[in-house]
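WARN no homologs supplied; continuing
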Amino acid sequence: MAQYYEIDNIIMGEELVSVVFRVGANGVGVLDPGSDSNTVEQGAKVDLPFWLAYELYLRQAVTLNVPPTFNQKTRKEIQADPACVDLRSRCPYFYEVGCKISPLVGDRSIGSFLLDAFRGRYREVLSKAHSTASVAASKSILSKEECELFNAAENSMASFKKWRVEGARLEKASILGRKRRSTD
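OK structure emitted
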Protein backbone atom coordinates (compact mmCIF):
# COMPACT_ATOMS: atom_id res chain seq x y z
CA MET A 1 0.00 0.00 0.00
CA ALA A 2 2.99 2.30 0.49
CA GLN A 3 3.57 2.54 -3.27
CA TYR A 4 -0.07 3.29 -4.06
CA TYR A 5 0.34 7.06 -3.70
CA GLU A 6 3.81 7.38 -5.23
CA ILE A 7 3.64 9.48 -8.39
CA ASP A 8 6.34 7.47 -10.17
CA ASN A 9 4.37 4.27 -9.59
CA ILE A 10 1.22 5.90 -10.96
CA ILE A 11 3.02 7.17 -14.07
CA MET A 12 4.69 3.78 -14.60
CA GLY A 13 1.24 2.15 -14.48
CA GLU A 14 0.19 4.27 -17.45
CA GLU A 15 2.74 2.56 -19.73
CA LEU A 16 0.83 0.95 -22.62
CA VAL A 17 0.94 -2.83 -22.95
CA SER A 18 -0.46 -4.87 -25.82
CA VAL A 19 -2.99 -7.51 -24.73
CA VAL A 20 -5.16 -10.11 -26.44
CA PHE A 21 -8.60 -10.67 -24.97
CA ARG A 22 -9.24 -14.32 -24.08
CA VAL A 23 -12.95 -13.69 -23.68
CA GLY A 24 -15.43 -11.25 -25.17
CA ALA A 25 -16.35 -8.27 -22.99
CA ASN A 26 -19.50 -6.17 -23.08
CA GLY A 27 -19.55 -2.48 -22.24
CA VAL A 28 -15.84 -1.90 -22.78
CA GLY A 29 -15.79 -1.10 -26.49
CA VAL A 30 -14.15 2.21 -25.72
CA LEU A 31 -10.94 0.26 -24.98
CA ASP A 32 -10.72 -0.89 -28.61
CA PRO A 33 -10.40 2.15 -30.88
CA GLY A 34 -11.19 0.01 -33.94
CA SER A 35 -14.47 -1.25 -32.52
CA ASP A 36 -17.78 0.23 -33.68
CA SER A 37 -19.81 -1.47 -30.98
CA ASN A 38 -19.60 -1.35 -27.20
CA THR A 39 -18.04 -4.83 -27.01
CA VAL A 40 -14.58 -6.28 -27.39
CA GLU A 41 -14.48 -9.61 -29.18
CA GLN A 42 -12.46 -12.62 -28.09
CA GLY A 43 -9.00 -12.49 -29.71
CA ALA A 44 -9.00 -8.70 -30.13
CA LYS A 45 -5.60 -7.02 -29.70
CA VAL A 46 -5.76 -3.82 -27.67
CA ASP A 47 -3.19 -1.51 -26.07
CA LEU A 48 -4.06 -0.89 -22.42
CA PRO A 49 -2.34 0.87 -19.54
CA PHE A 50 -0.29 -1.55 -17.48
CA TRP A 51 -2.46 -1.17 -14.36
CA LEU A 52 -5.58 -2.22 -16.27
CA ALA A 53 -3.83 -4.98 -18.21
CA TYR A 54 -2.51 -6.38 -14.93
CA GLU A 55 -5.97 -6.45 -13.32
CA LEU A 56 -7.50 -8.11 -16.39
CA TYR A 57 -4.63 -10.61 -16.46
CA LEU A 58 -5.33 -11.56 -12.82
CA ARG A 59 -8.95 -12.22 -13.81
CA GLN A 60 -7.71 -14.36 -16.74
CA ALA A 61 -9.50 -12.12 -19.24
CA VAL A 62 -6.39 -11.23 -21.28
CA THR A 63 -2.93 -12.46 -22.15
CA LEU A 64 -0.10 -9.95 -22.27
CA ASN A 65 2.31 -9.62 -25.17
CA VAL A 66 5.96 -8.71 -24.74
CA PRO A 67 6.21 -4.93 -25.20
CA PRO A 68 8.30 -3.68 -28.13
CA THR A 69 10.69 -2.16 -25.59
CA PHE A 70 11.91 -5.68 -24.83
CA ASN A 71 11.93 -7.11 -28.36
CA GLN A 72 14.94 -8.62 -30.14
CA LYS A 73 15.86 -5.37 -31.93
CA THR A 74 16.20 -3.52 -28.63
CA ARG A 75 18.12 -6.41 -27.11
CA LYS A 76 20.63 -6.40 -29.96
CA GLU A 77 21.09 -2.63 -29.71
CA ILE A 78 21.77 -2.86 -25.98
CA GLN A 79 24.15 -5.78 -26.45
CA ALA A 80 26.07 -3.80 -29.08
CA ASP A 81 26.54 -0.62 -27.02
CA PRO A 82 24.44 -0.28 -23.89
CA ALA A 83 25.51 3.27 -23.05
CA CYS A 84 24.24 4.78 -26.32
CA VAL A 85 20.69 3.39 -26.34
CA ASP A 86 18.01 5.95 -25.53
CA LEU A 87 15.89 4.11 -22.97
CA ARG A 88 13.88 7.18 -21.97
CA SER A 89 12.21 7.47 -25.39
CA ARG A 90 11.37 3.77 -25.44
CA CYS A 91 10.10 3.43 -21.88
CA PRO A 92 10.88 5.96 -19.13
CA TYR A 93 10.46 3.26 -16.46
CA PHE A 94 12.39 0.61 -18.40
CA TYR A 95 13.62 -1.50 -15.49
CA GLU A 96 10.47 -1.31 -13.37
CA VAL A 97 8.15 -2.20 -16.26
CA GLY A 98 10.49 -5.03 -17.23
CA CYS A 99 10.51 -6.46 -13.71
CA LYS A 100 6.73 -6.28 -13.42
CA ILE A 101 5.91 -7.63 -16.87
CA SER A 102 8.45 -10.46 -16.97
CA PRO A 103 6.46 -12.97 -14.90
CA LEU A 104 3.22 -12.04 -16.66
CA VAL A 105 4.34 -12.70 -20.24
CA GLY A 106 6.22 -15.89 -19.40
CA ASP A 107 9.47 -14.70 -20.99
CA ARG A 108 12.19 -15.58 -18.48
CA SER A 109 14.89 -13.98 -20.60
CA ILE A 110 13.62 -10.46 -19.78
CA GLY A 111 15.13 -10.65 -16.29
CA SER A 112 18.61 -11.52 -17.54
CA PHE A 113 18.26 -8.91 -20.29
CA LEU A 114 17.47 -6.23 -17.69
CA LEU A 115 20.46 -7.28 -15.61
CA ASP A 116 22.79 -7.19 -18.62
CA ALA A 117 21.44 -3.78 -19.66
CA PHE A 118 21.95 -2.36 -16.17
CA ARG A 119 25.45 -3.80 -15.86
CA GLY A 120 26.40 -2.34 -19.22
CA ARG A 121 25.03 1.11 -18.44
CA TYR A 122 25.96 1.39 -14.74
CA ARG A 123 29.60 2.36 -15.16
CA GLU A 124 28.77 4.89 -17.86
CA VAL A 125 26.05 6.50 -15.75
CA LEU A 126 28.41 6.93 -12.81
CA SER A 127 31.30 8.26 -14.89
CA LYS A 128 29.01 10.83 -16.55
CA ALA A 129 27.68 11.88 -13.15
CA HIS A 130 31.21 12.45 -11.82
CA SER A 131 32.24 14.60 -14.76
CA THR A 132 30.91 18.12 -15.23
CA ALA A 133 30.35 17.93 -18.98
CA SER A 134 26.81 18.44 -20.34
CA VAL A 135 24.61 17.03 -17.61
CA ALA A 136 21.40 17.62 -19.58
CA ALA A 137 22.66 15.69 -22.60
CA SER A 138 23.79 12.83 -20.38
CA LYS A 139 20.43 12.53 -18.63
CA SER A 140 18.34 12.72 -21.81
CA ILE A 141 18.86 9.04 -22.69
CA LEU A 142 18.59 7.62 -19.17
CA SER A 143 15.56 5.83 -17.79
CA LYS A 144 13.89 7.19 -14.66
CA GLU A 145 15.72 4.69 -12.44
CA GLU A 146 19.06 5.59 -14.03
CA CYS A 147 18.33 9.31 -13.54
CA GLU A 148 17.86 8.67 -9.82
CA LEU A 149 21.19 6.82 -9.75
CA PHE A 150 22.79 9.68 -11.70
CA ASN A 151 21.46 12.26 -9.23
CA ALA A 152 22.67 10.21 -6.25
CA ALA A 153 26.14 9.93 -7.80
CA GLU A 154 26.21 13.68 -8.52
CA ASN A 155 25.23 14.49 -4.93
CA SER A 156 27.83 12.06 -3.63
CA MET A 157 30.56 13.67 -5.71
CA ALA A 158 29.51 17.16 -4.62
CA SER A 159 29.61 16.10 -0.96
CA PHE A 160 33.01 14.51 -1.45
CA LYS A 161 34.40 17.64 -3.08
CA LYS A 162 32.98 19.80 -0.31
CA TRP A 163 34.54 17.55 2.33
CA ARG A 164 37.84 17.57 0.48
CA VAL A 165 37.98 21.37 0.26
CA GLU A 166 36.84 22.08 3.78
CA GLY A 167 38.89 19.28 5.29
CA ALA A 168 38.02 16.99 8.10
CA ARG A 169 36.33 18.70 11.00
CA LEU A 170 37.13 16.39 13.85
CA GLU A 171 36.39 17.61 17.30
CA LYS A 172 37.64 16.22 20.53
CA ALA A 173 34.84 14.66 22.53
CA SER A 174 34.22 16.49 25.78
CA ILE A 175 34.38 13.29 27.79
CA LEU A 176 37.96 12.67 26.64
CA GLY A 177 39.23 15.88 28.27
CA ARG A 178 38.23 14.84 31.80
CA LYS A 179 40.53 12.93 34.11
CA ARG A 180 39.44 9.98 36.11
CA ARG A 181 39.12 10.25 39.82
CA SER A 182 41.26 8.00 41.82
CA THR A 183 39.45 5.33 43.79
CA ASP A 184 41.87 5.49 46.75
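The two ends are 63 Å apart (CA to CA).
OK
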